[in-house]
Structure formats: C-alpha cells, structure tokens
C-alpha cells in the first residue's frame, strides 16, 4: 500500500511538471522569434537607409553628368569660336599682305615717274615754258603745219598735267593704304586678344570638366564600397569611370605633347636669336598683346617709311666677300645688313626692317631695283628659309 502511494505521488509530480516545461519552451521560442524579428527590422531599416543613400548618390551623379555635358557643350562652343577667330585673323593678315603688295607697286610707279618729271623740270630750267610754245608755233612751215604744232603742244601740256595728276593720286593712294594697314593691324591685335581669351576659357572649362569627372569617380567608388547589393551597377560604373579616366589620360598626354612642342619651338627660337648679332636694337615700342610675340614690332617714328619686297642672301651666294660699302660679310656673317637700290634707300643709312630688325644699307645688287631689298643671312639655308616677303621698312637716318 505504501509503495502504491509513493508511485502515485511520483506520477502526480511528473504530470504537474509537464505544463511548466512546455511553457518554458514556448517562452524561449517566442523570445527567439522576437529577437529574429527585431534583427529583421534592423536589417530592413539598414537596407532602406542604404537605398536612400544610393538614391542620393544617383541624384548627385546625375547632376555631375549634366554638368559634364554642359561643360562639353561650352568646350565645343569655345572650339568653334576659336576656329572663327582664327579665320578672321587669317583674313586680316591676307588684307594686310595685299595692301603691302599694292603699296610696293604704287611706290614703283611713283619712283618711275620721278625720273620723267625730273627730266621735264631740267628742260624747263633751260627754256622758259612759254618761250618753248611760242618758238614751236613760229617755226611752223605753213598754216597746216601750224595747226599740227598746236595739237602737238596741247598733247605735251596735257601729258604733263596727266603725269602730275597720276603722281598726286598714287601718292594719296599710298597714304590711304598705309592708314588702312594700320587700321587692320589694330584690328588684328584685337582679334588676337579675343583668341587668347577664348583659349583661356577653353582651358578653364576643361579643368572644370576634369574636376567634375573626378568628383563623379569618387561618388561611384564610395557607392561601390558601401552598397554590397549593387555589385552589377558598381561594375558598370567602374567601366564607365575607366572610360572617363582613359579620356582624361589621352587629353593629358596630348597636353604634354603640346607642351613639348612649345618648348622645342621656344628653344629653336632662342637658338636662332643667339646666332644673330644686331647692329643696333630696334626703336622702343609700346607693349603689345602677347599673341603678337612672333612678329617684329613696328617702331613709332616720324622717319620715312615704305613697303618693299624682301628676299635674302648670304656670303655663300656671292662671288666677293666684300659689299659695295666694303663690309666683309664672310668674316661677319651674322651682321645686320641689306642690299638696296640707292635711288630708293640711301647707301650707308640705318634702316629698320619688319621681321629682321635694324640694319645697315651697305650693299647693292643687279636685281635690286626699285622697292626691293636683300637681307643678309648667315648661310644659304637661312636665306632660303627667309624666302620672299613684303615688309614695312623705316629709314632711321
């Protein structure tokens, strides 16, 4: 009996303990589920936050891309403006060259007429103008011859008037052409200044564009490192960035190449300047735009100026090493000296030559007639490099 009670008590305890175990297990499961739900909620919030960050980055990237496109448009417009300005500069240079050549032709006409007019003046100095006319008419053989002589005298007088009128018109035209050249040169300076401004704007826009591209690259890199769910987009962006980097590298390589070419050109110019020995420095001038640094600046002076056709020669091209005035050009190949027509430019005078500098008119030549000069160069190669030009000259003394 006692054993039976003990067994029944044990079974009662076991029956009472079963609900407590079930309740404990249920509570543990609920806690685990709640914890999982909390983690899920946290993960969801993290995902939503990353998606917002991703959207913000996309908006920034879109803005940068629009900025890059706007800069590309400005660069394209700058390049078109450069082409237009360079075209205008070429047109102005052609106008100036044409005017110079026209002045040379007119100067030669004036020079030729001066000889004719000089002979006419000498003849009039020996015989009075009216006396010549009277004697011509008195010595007529008959009335028919008298009228013929009247016609001849009238023709001669009209010819003199015509020569004087043509001389006056040509001299006036020369002055007008010189004024037009000065006007076009001022316009050329203005256009070249515009060209420099356009180039500066172009480079500034390129720098801004490159900075914007670098900013885009940083944004995409940050996005790729923070959003692991966007690997495919990250790869596409990285590919796009590589393309942009390649473009930047190409432009930087081109810029370096341009810098090397400019350095070579500057070095060549310095070497060329080092081998030339100037007779005297050119007259002082006002500073002009840096865009005209490759051209000789015209000295401001009241001395006689004109335009001539200029070729070049060296001691290697002559039979004698001595010039007409006795300069030894073989011993002094780098001296500044020109061959001239003494009737146009006095021998021994100091002359400023556009693109050459200040030189001595110390030589003559069989082909140097009228408004033509020959500039002395150190060698035949340098003379050929000079070629044939139409330039302004100023007789300084």
Approximate strand percentage: 5-15%
Spatially, the strands of the biggest sheet line up as 1-5-2-4-3-6
Largest sheet: 6 strands, mixed, barrel
Give start-end ranges of low-pLDDT stretches: 274-296
Provide the helix percentage.
55-70%
Query: What is the string of SSEs from the N terminus onward?
Result: HHHHEEEEEHE
Radius of gyration: 46 Å
> Helix/strand/pairing class, anyone?
alpha/beta
Overall outline: elongated
Distance between the termini: 157 Å
Helix count, DSSP H or I runs of 4 or more residues: 5
Would you count the extended β strands for me? 6
Keywords: Coiled coil, Signal
Region (Disordered): 275-302
Domain Peptidoglycan hydrolase PcsB coiled-coil: 105-176
Pfam family, one: CC_PcsB
Give the tags.
397 residues, alpha/beta, Barwin-like endoglucanases, 6-stranded mixed β-barrel, 6 strands, PcsB_CC, Resuscitation_pf_RpfB, coiled coil, RlpA-like_sf, hydrolase activity, hydrolyzing O-glycosyl compounds
């Amino acid at each position: 009996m006692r054993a039976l009670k003990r067994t029944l008590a044990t079974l009662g305890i076991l029956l009472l303990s079963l609900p407590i175990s079930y309740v404990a297990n249920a509570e543990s499961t609920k806690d685990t589920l709640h914890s999982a739900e909390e983690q899920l909620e946290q993960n969801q919030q993290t995902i939503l936050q990353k998606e917002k960050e991703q959207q913000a980055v996309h908006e920034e990237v879109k803005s940068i891309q629009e900025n890059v496109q706007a800069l590309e448009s400005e660069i394209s417009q700058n390049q078109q403006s450069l082409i237009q300005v360079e075209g205008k500069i070429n047109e102005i240079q052609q106008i100036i060259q044409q005017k110079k050549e026209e002045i040379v032709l007119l100067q030669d006409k004036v020079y030729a007429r001066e000889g004719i007019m000089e002979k006419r003046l000498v003849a009039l100095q020996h015989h009075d103008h009216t006396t010549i006319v009277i004697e011509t008419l008195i010595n007529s053989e008959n009335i028919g011859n008298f009228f013929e002589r009247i016609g001849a005298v009238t023709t001669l007088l009209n010819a003199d008037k015509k020569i004087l009128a043509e001389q006056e018109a040509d001299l006036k035209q020369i002055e007008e052409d010189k004024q037009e050249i000065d006007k076009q040169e001022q316009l050329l300076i203005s256009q070249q200044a515009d060209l420099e401004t356009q180039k500066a704007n172009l480079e500034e826009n390129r720098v801004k564009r490159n900075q914007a591209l670098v900013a885009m690259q940083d944004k995409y890199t940050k996005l790729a490192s923070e959003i692991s769910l966007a690997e495919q987009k990250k790869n596409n962006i990285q590919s796009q960035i590589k393309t942009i980097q390649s473009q930047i590298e190409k432009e930087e390589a081109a810029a370096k190449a341009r810098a090397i070419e400019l350095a070579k050109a500057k070095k060549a110019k310095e070497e060329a300047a080092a081998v030339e020995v100037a007779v005297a420095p050119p007259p002082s001038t006002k500073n002009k735009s840096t865009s005209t640094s490759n051209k000789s600046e015209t000295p401001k002076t009241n001395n006689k100026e004109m335009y001539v056709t200029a070729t070049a020669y060296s001691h290697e091209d002559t039979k004698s090493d001595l010039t007409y005035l006795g300069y030894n050009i073989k011993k002094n190949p780098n001296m500044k000296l020109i061959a001239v027509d003494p009737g146009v430019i006095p021998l021994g005078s100091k002359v400023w030559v556009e693109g050459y500098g200040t030189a001595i008119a110390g030589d003559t030549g069989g082909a140097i007639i009228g408004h033509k000069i020959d500039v002395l160069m150190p060698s035949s190669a340098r003379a050929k490099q000079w070629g044939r030009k139409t330039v302004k000259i100023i007789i300084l003394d």
